[in-house]
Predict the 3D structure of the following.
Amino acid sequence: MQKSLIIFKKELKDIIRDRRTITVMLVLPLVVYPLIFIGMSKYVTSQTEKAAEKTLRMGIVENDGASHFKTFLSTLPKIRVISITDTISGKMLIEQDNLDAAYFFPADYDSSLAKLQSPAFQYFYTSTNNEFEVGLIEAFNRQYTDMLMKKTLADMQLSENILTPVKMQPRNLASQREQLGSIIGGLLPYFFIIFCMVGCMYPAIDLAAGEKERGSLETLLVSSASRAEIYVGKLLTVALSGLLSALAGIIGILISAKIIGGNAAMSSGGIGGLTDLLNGLLDPSSILLLLILLLPLNIFFAAITLMLSIYAKSFKEAQSMITPLMILIVFPAIAGMLPGVKLDFITALVPILNVSLGSKAIIAGTVETGPFLLTCVVLVVYAAIALFMSVKFFNDEKNVVRG
């Protein structure tokens, strides 16, 4: 074991000296991804505020049927009415970004409305690069139809309650942490899994195929260390790299969520759900449960990537063999985000998916003991199988000297 630790220290020094590995393992999850999350949050907030302050340019085809609609427009702020001759010119103005929407009312619209015949009107818009304005237009249309409904009921001397004969009072028993965790809880495990895989991938390629290509693996094999001690040292290095990358991803996401939550709290006066979620994530029991899931998963990734790297002839070949694994990992990780999919005794048997669903349940605070324990057992079994295959490859002389 002492020789394995010596090899582990030697390999760890080589990894630390490799800027590419350090960048992928620590800089990306700890710095770059939080900056991306924060930047996206600020962009969405600024665009929403910008759209709310914008004066909507509403085109109306001039005919005898739009007077009622124009009267409604005159009561609203930040609306500029532009008269257009027909729908063709209105469509052209929208495509040229000179209009936000164009409305066409048939000539008998006002008279049909007075007779309660439910007349129809058309409006044209484009959603391309205009998503925030589209939301305002749809809200504006709902406001118009609500006004018509209230006016019709008032003219008929009927109460608005006739449309809602009964009032529902929903009481959601799920906590804010559970509600928010079910929404974004599936996204966070996706990043944990990807960080863990990427953190194992580059060190594994360098410590096996890379050393084989540089000719330094033979020197290590003729040392006093046994084949098993060499393998253990390399495996510990790869597993540690993956674990550090996953932890850096967790820390980076927590930092970005803290910053986003703090900004939202200052602007809106509080954001209890996100605060509950962050407090749940920072809870020692939640961190411990996440680590229990990540450790066997990390060993599984480390053994698989090291096995493929040992088999490869060169660094480039190892990359081409290991990179497709990301596709196999992404699909079950994404499946964990789907609504209605939860951790049970069936999904606990599916690798990667069980980690995604288990992490999602931990984040939401709804993890169940039985499926979670089965997930841990299954992960340990898969990790043991991967270790057995990886050791077998490393003990095969044809793989070690291949190339």
The longest helix spans residues 227-268. Residues 181 and 353 are 17 Å apart (CA to CA). The first strand starts at residue 56 and ends at 61.
